[in-house]
Amino acid sequence: MNLLMILFLLFACNKEEINEVNNYPALQTTKNISYNGVSVDLLIDKPEGEEFDVLMIFHGTVGYDSLIMEAANNAMNRFKNILDRKDMILVSVAYPQEEVLFGDGIKECEAALLWLKHNAGVDLNIEINKIFLAGHSQGGYMVTRLNTMHETDGVIANAPGPLNLVFRCELEENGQIPPGLVCDLLDDEYGPPSVNPNPYFERSLLNYTSNYKSKILFVQGLEDSPIQMYSWPTFKESLLDCDSCEDIQFLELEGFGHNALFNNSQAKNEFNAFISN
Q: What CATH architecture is 26-164+204-276?
């Protein structure tokens, strides 16, 4: 084989490799998905490649749907900034909240997870390996509830809540704290918590402390709001007593508040170790 032929074959092989890489480019996009008739918007940040683990992210509370895409983007950036790995797809779920009773957004969150499990590979032309869920505040509430519904490779919940809507909404009812949209909507639907506490409790995270299907890491700053910390010991104790749960881990951080996961180096290390393991 002469030199010219060797160079031609080398060029052909390199061109084939380049074309193969270009079939799986990096991607940052917004996508509306639907699963079992439930639609929701997703923000997707995909590195170059064709085979990935995925971190699905859930934002905290916002009052109006006009703010949801911004909240989903902020949540994605916060988790991306503490994630050591650069080879994971990030998917941030823009689940609705305006005029939605607290907790009812779980149906859009579940639709997003089931789409990721069953349809995303085909829709995005990729292969998905492990799936992790991560949420902050109400997003932590959502991922904890999803962990009672579907198995994944792991769940991280930072300052999940509200833990106890009966306690929180009674404070608003009694004028001890300012009124908010969450309790106002529940009051319109069920009446005040002092009269009808059951539906408030049923929507509280304290009602979801069993049957966890995957390992979960809870991160809680111990300088969080008094409302959160009032119920945190009860929530933790209920989980420690759970005999129908997969592995539950707690990281409690003195001197840190609601954003502990994003502000504490130990929390960042635990977060990355949890995903790596």
A: 3-Layer(aba) Sandwich (3.40)
